[in-house]
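Q: Could you fold this chain for me?
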Amino acid sequence: MSRHPDASIREFRESDLVPVQRLIQQTIEVCYSGVYPPRAVQFFKSFHGEEKIMERHRNGEMLVVEQDGEVIATGAIVGTDIFGVFVHPEFQRRGHGGTLMRQLENRGKARGCKEPELSVSLPSRGFYEGLGYEMLAGVNSQMAPRMKKGYDATYLGELKQQGCQVTLWKLTYKDGGDDTLARLALKEEKVAGFLLQ
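A: Sure. Below is the predicted structure, expressed as structure tokens.
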């Protein structure tokens, strides 16, 4: 068990399922609303539902951060992938997420994972960059200046292709330039493809 000044990190237990799901759902609702359209927020909530939480627990190592008996953060490493890192909005920017990420990274290293892979949402991008992760440098240099000026993400729909769940969004920039079509393909909870046009 690892200690943060006012919280502890421990292994996920099956009895944590309901509080972890509640934490994830609340965090998505608060942090993703206004960044993603309502249908995309619902997609993320479904993607991080009970079945997916238990799948991560069975196939990898899942941790929770607990404070005063309450689960305030969670995350998992499955193979080389770090998934489902969420910190309750009331406990963000207090070091819990960074401490949790270091624990997940260390567990991955202990199993031979040199560089973990991440699936990053728009609201969490700054958090991961602050930890030293780089977000597709070429894409970042092209899109970041436009995104800083403001943008709207419009959920366009979902489709199945070659065994993947494909989600489409349109990014409309406040600078008035061309829109971007974002296509994210997921297969077995892993990113199978990402395309920006």
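A (continued): Residues 22 and 89 are 12 Å apart (CA to CA).
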